[in-house]
Specification:
The chain is mainly alpha-helical. The chain has 18 helices and no strands. It has four domains: 4-44, no CATH class; 65-176, Tetratricopeptide repeat domain (Serine Threonine Protein Phosphatase 5, Tetratricopeptide repeat), CATH 1.25.40.10; 177-264, Serine Threonine Protein Phosphatase 5, Tetratricopeptide repeat; 280-332, no CATH class. 38% of the residues are buried.
Length: 332
């Protein structure tokens, strides 16, 4: 044990005290100091028997345990194995484990197997079978599958187009906080698919989707406010929704944001204008309007090297004024 030898010396020391071999020769203060030193030693001395540490499990080891659990009919372990092989792009093995998971009535496993069938990954593509598996998973409470059922009926994959069923499953998934379900339900209201066209309901569902982090919902709101599609034009709102969609890595929204800002910011004059222009230039992939205006800003402030960089960026994106300005500067 850790402190056994220290306790032994304490015991012997106490025996000396009892026999009077030490107390008769030294003051009581020394006795107190010795005991204090022994207690400090107990706190600082390393353990005689080190604590056993668990070895870090290697990938091969945890896969072995997952496979054993799957063989023992743990449906979640089977699905996890499918995910592991899917990430490694070993689609055929992923399919086999998703099959086992689905056979054991795991809704997520059925959803994942349906996806593999729908995309033809590791197995021959079969939309009809995919639809049936999505429906099975949806009945078991997997709301992502409910959305997928709606999407297949909307597009007519695995079955004939059926906007009634599409709307039903989009609404069901949206009510369970599946953002893409809200977005697609909004699209149906906005475009009069099954429902009578209702812009207010469309805006409401797009807004819900956007709030839940669905970039398409934010983008669609931005477009409606930019163009006045069913609503009064509001560039400030369009900018706000495009900016949020862009922050969710929706690059078309980044491009639209640059276009909107290009109309709004005629010339960079304020710090706020500069920050907005720089962000738009960095995030967009086409256009180049704001990159061009940044070039003008730096050229005006006598920083031609940085101006040239922005002109080059804008020119590469097809912004003609930047290409013309580069030509003018090269000619001077």
């Amino acid at each position: 044990m850790r402190y056994s030898f220290v306790l032994k010396y304490i015991f012997l020391y106490l025996m000396y005290i009892k026999k009077g071999r030490f107390m008769s020769k030294k003051p009581i203060v020394i006795t107190v100091l010795v005991l204090a030193l022994i207690l400090l030693a107990i706190n600082f001395l390393p353990s005689v028997v080190p604590v056993k540490k668990f070895a870090t499990l290697t990938d091969a080891t945890y896969i072995t345990y997952y496979k054993k659990a799957c063989d023992l009919e743990d449906s979640e372990a089977c699905n996890d194995l499918g995910d592991i092989y899917f990430k490694d792009k070993d689609y055929s093995d992923a399919v086999e484990f998703y099959k086992q998971s689905c056979t054991l009535e795991n809704a997520e496993g059925c959803n994942n197997l349906a996806y593999m069938l729908d995309e033809g990954l590791g197995i021959e593509r079969h939309n009809w079978q995919a639809l049936k598996l999505y429906e099975k998973a949806c009945k078991s409470g997997n709301m992502r599958s409910c959305y997928n059922v709606g999407a297949m009926y909307f597009k007519g994959e695995g079955a004939r187009k059926n906007y009634y069923k599409a709307a039903h499953f989009f609404k069901k998934s949206c009510n369970s906080d599946i953002a893409s379900g809200c977005n697609d339900l909004a699209f149906m209201y906005a475009n009069g698919k099954y429902f009578k066209r209702n812009i207010q309901k469309a805006i409401g569902f797009y807004y819900d989707a956007c709030e839940m982090g669905e970039a398409s919902g934010c983008n669609n709101l931005g477009y409606m406010y930019e163009t006045g599609d069913g609503v009064r034009k509001n560039i400030q709102k369009a900018e706000r929704f495009y900016e949020k969609a862009c922050s969710l890595d929706d690059f078309p929204s980044c491009d639209r944001l640059e276009t909107v800002l290009g109309k709004k910011i005629r010339e960079i004059k304020t710090e706020e204008d500069f920050k907005a222009a720089k962000k738009a230039c960095q995030n967009s992939k086409v256009g180049g309007t704001m990159c061009y205006k940044l070039g003008l800003y730096f050229e005006k402030n006598d920083d031609q090297d940085i101006a040239l960089q922005y002109y080059e960026e804008a020119c590469d994106r097809g912004q003609s004024q930047s290409c013309k300005r580069l030509g003018d500067l090269a000619r001077e």
